[in-house]
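Why should sequence recovery work at all? Because a backbone constrains its sequence more than one might expect. Tight turns favour small or flexible residues, buried strands favour hydrophobic ones, and helices have their own preferences. The token representation captures these environments compactly. In the example below, the structure is given first.
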């Protein structure tokens, strides 16, 4: 997942509360369905036929909570200045 690779590259945490977020597992489903709808490959009927309204709401809630937790991780990373080089410097 792109968020995890970006987190690893820059050093902020990609970890979230799994119970609340599913660690973003629904993001790919949302992305694929969104693209299929946008490009006319599928209709709303086709995309929504396998999920109840409650299931769709739960997916939405998990995705929003996941993204909020990732943003909190980034805020913490910036606030703590974790992007700065912490290696010891040589002072001759």
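From this structural description, the recovered sequence reads:
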């Amino acid at each position: 997942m792109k968020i995890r690779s970006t987190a690893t590259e820059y050093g902020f945490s990609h970890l979230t509360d799994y119970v609340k977020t599913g660690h973003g597992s629904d993001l790919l489903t949302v992305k694929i369905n969104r693209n299929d709808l946008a490009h006319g490959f599928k209709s709303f009927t086709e995309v929504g036929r396998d999920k109840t309204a409650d299931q769709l709401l739960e997916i939405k809630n998990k995705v929003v909570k996941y993204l909020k937790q990732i943003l909190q991780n980034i805020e913490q990373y910036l606030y703590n200045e974790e992007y700065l080089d912490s290696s010891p410097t040589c002072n001759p």
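A few observations help interpret the result. The chain is about 60% helix and 0% strand.
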